[in-house]
Design a protein that fits this description.
The chain has 230 residues and is an alpha/beta fold. The protein contains three helices and eleven strands, in the order E-H-E-E-E-E-E-H-E-E-E-E-E-H. It is 22% helix and 29% strand. A hairpin with a 2-residue loop joins strand 7 and strand 8.
Length: 230
């Protein structure tokens, strides 16, 4: 059974990482169950294990955190639903590629609840939406914007980190980095697409689509908690 927790307010990044590491260790030790943790961070950039220094355009704008997860530079901030998944991937098939594909499928199913078609692209991490409402790119191709980022780390088959869905963040905050090293495409959000969606709406959609991808979950009294999950 998977526990769900929603933190109120903005959670400091260092506190979140420490809490994730502690929970993942407890899952490996068999003293705690799996956890899906929904939260927001204050504005910050994270540098994954593949981050290139040239992609940090404005290093003084927000704090920059080096993190041991896959991927390159990402932004986190208010209005973005960050979803940290501490799941036992060994019990789910020991297939890292399948696990990442399941995370993508979960995001796509969640977006579909708002009639948004999320898509994946070979060679581009994350989930994208086609923007026929924008002018074509220099090559004449239809524009595509990133709406969700994905980056995970596995230690002894227990996952950490996860996904970030842009609900209503300040999109100008992405200007300080080249998101995920991809300069030829932009970023968007559900509100930027013209949808009056809240974080709470996205939380409901995430819960409603999780089971179809990952199996049963537990909507116990622990579905809301303090700013930092145990």
């Amino acid at each position: 059974m998977v526990e769900w927790r929603i933190s109120e307010g903005l959670v400091a990044y260092e506190d979140a990482v420490a809490a994730m590491e502690a929970r993942a260790a407890a899952i490996r030790a068999g003293t705690a169950g799996e956890l899906v943790w929904l939260l927001e961070h204050p504005p910050l950039y994270t540098a994954g294990t593949s981050a290139q220094a040239r992609d940090l355009v404005d290093p003084e704008r927000f704090p920059v955190h080096a993190v041991r997860r896959g991927g390159q530079y990402t932004y986190h901030g208010p209005g973005q639903r960050v979803v940290y998944v501490m799941l036992d991937v060994a019990a789910r098939g020991r297939d890292v590629r399948r696990f990442v594909a399941d995370l993508e499928a979960w995001v796509i199913a969640t977006l579909a609840r708002f009639n948004v078609r999320g898509e994946i692209r070979p060679g581009r991490v994350g989930v994208w939406v086609v923007r026929p409402d924008k002018a074509p790119g220099p090559d004449g191709a239809t524009r595509e914007d990133k709406i969700a980022a994905i980056g995970v780390r596995l230690t002894r088959w227990v996952s950490m980190h996860g996904i970030a869905i842009n609900v209503e963040p300040d999109l100008s905050h992405f200007d300080g980095i080249v998101p995920c090293g991809i300069a030829d495409h932009g970023v968007t959000s559900l509100v930027d697409l013209g949808l009056p969606v809240t974080l709470e709406d996205v939380d409901v959609a995430l819960r409603g689509t999780f089971g179809a991808v990952f199996g049963k979950d537990d909507f116990s009294s622990k579905n809301r908690g303090p700013s930092v999950a145990p």
